[in-house]
Amino acid sequence: MLGMWQLFWPAVAFVGVSIGALLLRAAFTRGLRRWLGPASVEVFLGSIRLPSILWCFVLGLFVAIELVEMPRRLGTQLHTILEAAIILTVTFTVAGVLGSLAAAAGERRALGIGMTGLVHAAVLGTILLIGTLVMLDALGVQITPLLTALGVGGLAVALALQDTLSNLFAGVHLLADKPIRVGDYVKIADTIEGYVVDVGWRSTRVHMLQNNVVIVPNKRVAESIIVNYDMPERRMALLVPVSVGYGSDPDRIEAALVEEAVAATREVPGLLPEPAPTARLIPGFGAHSLDFTLVCHVASFVDQYFVQHALRKRILRRLRADGVEIPAPVRTISLTAAPPSGEGRPSAS
Fold first, then answer.
1. What are phi and psi of 328, to 5 degrees?
2. Of 87, 210, 266, 347, which sits 20 to 30 A from 7 (CA to CA)?
3. 307 in helix, strand or coil?
4. Has this prediction a pTM greater than 0.70?
5. Residue 146 clears pLDDT 50, i.e. is over it
6. Torsion of Cα atoms, 27 then 29 then 34 then 36, to 10°
7. DSSP 171-230
8. What is the pLDDT of residues 207-229, one digit of tens each?
9. What would the pLDDT profile of 116-133 be if each residue is shown by its tens digit?
10. Are 100 and 61 contacting, i.e. CB atoms less than 8 angstroms apart?
11. What angle do CA 140, 143, 148 make, to 5 degrees?
């Protein structure tokens, strides 16, 4: 009975401290939601919900152990086990919070699924490695030889995976510099042109207009000249050359081109009314024609194809209706008569 009575107050302390910690946890959660708003702290609260309950009970156990008379060695071992449990739960909690924040940041910045997963895995692995080393140190395990082994092993892995690591760091460079984003229409190395589908840890996927997906190593993407047609904005200028005969009135041609382009903005998808279309006598005086350039703007790079198709048909009908000559290159060939037979030939002696 005496032994049971000696455990009464530690049990009361465990229950009381645990309940008090749980009440404090609930008040802290409620206050944080009210202060920052539910949307802002949902990721954080979701990550610490289960570990925080465990912390409350561990705190109660700490207090209860202090009130129990037990051998010093056993008390030290229990304290070590509880410290390891706290370190382990804190490690998983921090890894979950930072991983969720990295994933949310990747979605806001429109990064690829592969790149977002790369960041999440890197954050998770780093935090877990640090937490494991701290826990081993708390348990009395010497981590210096382990760190040395990890360093030597990491060097060997780096030498064996040079190409893979170069693509990995190129992907990190693309993530930091952001020359391309998922959904952008780009041209890479003058041969690959299409929409960016994904920027992964090893390669970048580009969906071409021919409905093919080209997989490009990140190292080549980082080293290539990239034309991003969606930066700084998707709108782009479209230049349509138009040639007419030298007998045409330049002012009349300019007015006709602008009128047709303005009228087309109300009927042709992708052709923008602003900035307003303009026509200029550029490049000017050709070998056989007056060369105009009609300048208008389209909503995106791929809109230019249908817009050019529609504009050229409208311009051709307008010029024919106005009786404007559309010249074609002319080549003059001079023919000379052949000399009579026998003329010019040396006479036989």
1. -120, 150
2. 87
3. helix
4. no
5. yes
6. 140
7. HHHHHHH-SS-TT-EEEETTTEEEEEEEE-SSEEEEEETTS-EEEEEHHHHHHS-EEETT
8. 998 899 999 888 888 888 889 99
9. 556 666 677 777 778 777
10. no
11. 165
